Fold:
Amino acid sequence: MFATLREDLLRFSDSDKSNFRVFIAGLLSQGFQAILVYRFFRWCYIHHIPAQPFRFFVERFIEITTGISIPAQCQIGKGFRIHHFGGIVLHPETVIGNNCTIYQGVTFGDRGGYGGAPKLGNNVLIGAGAKIIGAIRIADDCIIGANAVVTKDMAPNTIAFGNPAVYKTKDSDTNEQR
Structure:
């Protein structure tokens, strides 16, 4: 848990890896506060340590103060960063790879009670207000633009934008509607 938290904290600075500055930046970030609570209760969940009803109250407090809902059942890799807090909701079955970044207003959800949850690869960037819906796979090194609604799988190195999402590979100039 602590090694993963360290990787999360290191995402707060590209150039200055000073432990004290990065630690303070993390503690002052509402996004990192939500990640910290998630990591602790995820550790309890994995090790079958009963944390209810304490977990319920702490998670609700984080939801109210930061607007971020990350259930302990989610699987999130190291180096996770919530760049701006507020309005972030993750489905309990969501899987997120390493070094992913999400902005405010992002939702990972199912299709209204059925259909499963999204699975993200590594190094995925999700813009503000994006919605990723259903049991879809977002491959490594993808970018999902602000307010995009993604309901289909994405190949590696793809950019998604718009509603419904339009997909474009990072290397090509042609758009492909799915």
